[in-house]
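User: Run a structure prediction on this.
Assistant: Running it now.
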Amino acid sequence: MPRFDGRNSRLFLTLGLACGLVGSARAAFPLEYDAKVPAATRAQLEGDLARFFSMRGSKPTPLFRKTFGAFDGRSTSAWFFDRVGSVGVNLCTNEAAVACVLSAWNGWIFLSPNYTKFSHPPIARLMVLFHEARHNETEERNWPHAKCPTPFLDELGRPVRSIWTGEPLAGDLACDLEVGGSYGIATILLLNVAYRCDNCTAEERRDAEIYGLDQLRRITWEPARTAIMKDAGVTKAYLVRRSRLRSVHR
């Protein structure tokens, strides 16, 4: 597999294609794929990206603007393709991982078997892609994760589990202490889709809230977590209500 530098400016030569085709079923993206990536996975990934790049919000939150710029396809696609240029599979050493990046392969995202093994909505797959894209920022030491607390409990006192695999997270390197880490920016993105998207469907907004509030739990340093909640307009009382509602419908 060729090495790809995700910060290579040549990507922007093709960003016009990505931005011009957002909303279409098949978009032309500046992505290279390892031969082992199944055609169905590639089509799904590009379909997910195309839909996200067609989303827009006229009033994104301050943290969204600080991270991604405007809430439109030009800004969000530029952010993503500045960090990701290639996609591979099956090189993640953590069996619980959904995807990963490797320092020796800057600009790549590697999808684990868990990416396709479990059924999740498109917004959840986008969450994974943008999470991993953040990890490709070498100047920030790839935004390393912090250990989740033990015990690790939600608003109702229940053990926190991965929303993707169902595995318990206490003691795992699966949390963040910063607003700008991978879990933080994924939460910011999702909650803007949930609350600030002008052309999203009710289902997309609902899914974005479910996964966004779940990811919010992964920011375990209270000041960082509070900053993201304030940015999104989410209160602790609201988190409790949503947790109770979800527990009823499980």
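The longest strand covers residues 86-89.
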